[in-house]
Design a protein that fits this description.
About 65% of the residues lie in helices and about 15% in strands. The protein has about 140 residues and is an alpha+beta fold. The protein folds into two domains: about 100 residues, Zincin-like, CATH 3.30.2010.20; about 40 residues. It has a three-stranded mixed β-sheet. A two-stranded antiparallel ribbon has the order 2-3. The longest helix has about 40 residues. InterPro entries: Zincin_1_sf (IPR038555). This is Neutral zinc metallopeptidase. Keywords: Membrane, Transmembrane, Transmembrane helix. It comes from Muiribacterium halophilum.
Length: about 140
């Protein structure tokens, strides 16, 4: 799927949404870039709230292209819809004053970083023990 097809599908999908939902959102926008999270995961879409503007959804074409390079357009369309629905869930939680899904995503990201911390601490302890044993022999 080319970028113009990606953008056109997103535009048509947004136009077919419920009128109330369209009025609440600033739009669903395509972006040509690849987006990576802080820990290196590929980000397909993002729900953005920047007051006083209306919330908006951004879908990253470069990210889709990276994970779906050889897929047919129908598969792309299904994935685009899945990502829009995922981001709309964030919107519904935002309207309700909750952020359960966002907190779960943050926890998954933090749990990945937590594993790295455990490995770092384990290696640090091993180095400390080895260093202590070596120093003990010389004293």
């Amino acid at each position: 799927m080319f970028f113009f097809e990606f953008a056109e599908f997103i535009h048509r999908y947004f136009q077919d949404m419920d009128e109330n939902l369209k009025q609440q959102l600033g739009g669903v926008f395509p972006d040509e870039d690849i987006k990576n999270s802080a820990n290196g995961n590929i980000v397909l879409g993002e729900y953005r709230v920047k007051r006083p503007e209306k919330p908006k959804i951004v879908l990253y074409y470069g990210s889709f292209k990276k994970i779906l390079p050889e897929r047919d357009p129908n598969f792309w369309k299904k994935k685009i819809i899945d990502v829009i629905h995922h981001e709309l869930t964030h919107h519904i939680e935002y309207l309700n004053g909750t952020n359960k899904m966002g907190k779960e995503e943050i926890w998954r990201k933090r749990s990945f970083d937590f594993k790295e911390l455990i490995i770092f601490l384990f290696i640090t302890i091993i180095i400390f023990v080895i260093t202590f044993n070596i120093m003990e022999r010389f004293l």
